[in-house]
Every structure is written in C-alpha cells, then in structure tokens.
Design brief:
homodimer; 264 residues; alpha/beta; Rossmann fold; six-stranded parallel sheet; two-stranded antiparallel ribbon; 31% helix; globular; NAD(P)H_dehydrogenase_qn (chains A, B)
Chain lengths: 264, 264
C-alpha cells in the first residue's frame, strides 16, 4: 500500500463470539494486512460508561448544563480521561468504522452514549471564535474524516430497502449519518448492512466476509452520500430548504443531492 | 374525571432544575390534578443501568445471545429486578409519556438502554405459541396502550418541519415511533416538540406549559399516527410494501396511511 492510513474501529456488542465479534476481528485483520494502522474501541470490552453526568464537571449541588459544562471542561482539558482518550482516537483517525447490531432500530445504548459523551461542543462542533461562523457540516471540525457504518440486523434485506417496512436504512439512520457524522464534518459512506443476521450459516458468512473485505479495500475511494452543504444557499437561516431546491418535495431524501442536480 | 387512567411517565434528563425537569414536574402534577394515577421512572434519579449484559443471565464464560437469553430469562422470571419493575409499570399503564432532550438527534443513552433492556422478546413482541402468529404491530402485546413523546431540542421549529434540515420529527424518530412503539402494538400519538429549548424565557415557557396541558388533556382522545398494519395485505412476506400500495413511492411517509386512503 502506498498510503497507509489510520482507521479507528468503534464497535459495540456484548459477546465476542457473536457474528459482530467475528466480523470485527476479521475486518481489523484485513485492514492491518493491507497496511493500515488500526486503533480500536470495543465498548463492551472497555466497560465504557455511556451516561452523561455532571459528576466531576460541576460542584455537588450545582446545576448541570450538559452542553455548556462539557464544552467548558473540554476547553479546560478537564473532561474525564476516558472521554479524552476517545477524542484523541477520533482526532487522529483518517477513517472511522462504526460497527453495531441494530437494537430497536437504533444503536445500542453503550454506543449512543459514546456519541453523547465524546462529541462535545468545542470538539465536534462549535463556532469560530473570531468570525462567529458556525463550525458544522462542511465547516465541521472532522472534515475529510471518512465514516463507514457496519450494521447487523435481524430483518431481511427488503425490509430496509426503499419500500421496506423498517425504513430504508439511510433514512432509518438519518440522525446518525446526517445529524451526527455529517454534522461534525465527516464524509459519510453508504452504510453496509448485514441483514438476516440470525440466519447466518457458513456460506452466507463467507459472502459477508468477502463483501466486507471489498468495502474496506474501497474505504478511501467509495463515493460518499452527498448530503447538502449547510452554508451554500440550499437552506434558509431557519435550517429549512429554500423553495427553489426540490420544490414542493418533503422527506429525508431531499437532503441528499440528486445525481441530476450535480454538474456532470 | 369519569374515567381515571394510569399514566406511566418515563423521562431522562440529568438535571432536575432543567427545562425537562420543570416540564416533567408540571406535567405530572397536571395529570394528577385531572384525576389520573401517575407512575414515574426518572431514569437519572433512579441510576438506571442502560447496558444490556449477559451477567446473571448466562454462566460465566458461556456465550451470551442478547435476544435469546433475555427471552428465556423473561419466561423463567429471572430477569434482573430493575428490568422486571419497569416491565410491570409498562404493563399496567394505559398510556406512556416518554420525555427526553434530543441528543445527537436521538434519545439519550440512558433512555435507549431502557428500551434495550426492558422490551425483551416474549414481553414486548413474540410469537403465539399455538398458532405461530407473529405478535407485533397490530398483533403486538401492547395494543391499546397510548404513547406520547415529549422532546426538547435546540433547533428552531422549521428545522424539524417537512423540509427541515434536521429531518421532519416523525421521520427522524421513525425507529422509535414506528420501529419500537408501533412494533410492540402501542397507539402512537404525534410527538410533541419543544424546539429552541435553549432560548426559553418566561413567556415562551408559559406557552409550553399551556400547550403541554392541552396535549395531556387530550391524551386519550388525540388521533394517533396511522401506521399501516403489518398483517392486512399492505406488505409482502419480506416486509416490503406491495406494489399496489403507494405505487412507485419511497420514503418513510409511505408507511403512514394517507387520509385519502382511509374510508371516510
């Protein structure tokens, strides 16, 4: 490999001998074998605490403001050491792989609490102190960092397709892909789903492994999801699409730039 | 009140002196004043553990299957006592109010872990042991139980409107409203949002309080979101809309029955 990168593999499954555990080990091994440096956070193995609390951030009995007090602690360097450790891993990464089982059509609590605790104001978003420019989306601090979601789920493939009852996967995960990753400036790759996970046999597992290798090989080349930029005229000051963009249309897909909208 | 009901108020905010804490106390007081019985779970105050673990469910060193082992423990009555306590509260409730601040466009980790740990197979969904019928959506165990989401958020109102950048609220929360509440059989009310929460002053707070009283007064009369039933021909066996329903359309809103589809 000409250009080795640092990949941060963030995962959340309670059982190492699960399909998730197997895919994790195999994916990390593959990335290393292709020359990348891999940094890991296996949240269950680490005993990660997912709960945002004021303890240590404000004096006992003081009112705790989750946004303001974590921002202040970030600036002062007084966030808990586990949070600072995760921030350093994310900061140093060229790409992030976020792997989880879909529980109640969302990330497991232990992983949600990684976002809640690690992505504090000042670190993951903020304002330019000189210009007042909001630092998010295309101005976000994590510009250029690629993120790939790997998700196992029990539903069959069509249930997360465009007319699937569980919701098309990118729409179902909009708050994560757009509201979290794109918000902080990351380059969001199409997520990779492993449906029918409870019915994995040796043959289907071999297919999964092969497909995952392919996606990891393309980690730095895959075309991302083209979410609209925030500050280039597509949205009003109230964060609503201007009337000229996709006139009359609604729905989450309006926030993705259509192929025919892009200059060829 | 002729017909007092039991309302379960489930909430998650770390600071009682927050807007969330104030709305919670006020809402509960109002429900009681109108004759309802209110049961509470204030997850931060309870020190709720949000992490699904195999401890106590499988022998040390045994492989842990989050779905299968919690189902078995539910049937045997050996789930942890905190989980059983929450299940009893939910079981006994005529309506549930679920209140939270929107963190990273989703529920806080401590609340996500309530769903992860409490809504186990056998309790919140399952199969009829005699007929093999899947017990979910209109066959789900919580049929008739109403659920109202109250959510505070920093964004301004239009950001969560039909063309808002953060995603229209019901679409943003699809995994919760549809994939969790409707899945288990609940009657899902349109969620109530408190946007611009960081800019609340006395006047806007008075408006919030008034609006919340109105919604709580209508808790048992409000028209719910008309999600499609699962077993009445709208979906294939693969959980995909049949071609005749909303032909050619995609997006999360296709899973809600349009007014013009319903018999008048």
């Amino acid at each position: 490999m000409d250009d080795p990168k640092t990949v941060f593999w963030l995962s959340a499954h309670p059982e190492p001998r699960s399909l998730n555990g197997q895919l994790r080990r195999m994916g990390i091994k593959h990335l290393k074998s292709t020359g990348h440096h891999v940094v890991e956070s296996d949240l269950y193995a680490m005993g990660w605490d997912p709960v945002v609390r004021g303890d240590g951030l404000v004096e006992a009995g003081q009112r705790f403001d989750p946004t303001g007090d974590t921002k202040r602690a970030y600036i002062e360097g007084s966030l808990p050491s586990d949070v600072r450790g995760e921030q350093a891993k994310l900061q140093d990464a060229d790409a992030v792989v976020v792997q989880f089982p879909l529980w109640w059509y969302a990330v497991p609590a232990i992983l949600k609490g990684w976002f809640d605790r690690v992505l504090v104001s000042g670190f993951a978003f903020g304002k330019d102190p000189d210009t007042g420019q909001r630092l998010r989306f295309e101005k976000g601090p994590f510009q250029g960092k690629r993120v790939l979601v790997l998700v196992t789920l029990g539903d069959r493939p069509r249930a997360i397709g465009p007319r699937g009852k569980s919701g098309e996967l990118c729409e179902l995960l909009f708050g994560l892909l757009h509201g979290t990753f794109a918000y902080t400036g990351m380059v969001v790759l199409p997520p990779m789903a492993f449906p029918s996970a409870d019915f994995t046999d040796n043959e289907s597992y071999a297919d999964m492994e092969h497909a995952l290798h392919d996606r990891l090989d393309q980690l730095f080349e895959t075309q991302p999801i083209h979410y609209r930029p925030q500050f280039q005229g597509d949205y009003t000051e109230e964060w609503e699409l201007v009337p000229e963009v996709r006139p009359g249309e609604t729905g989450l897909s309006t926030h993705v730039i259509d192929d025919h909208e892009r200059p060829s």
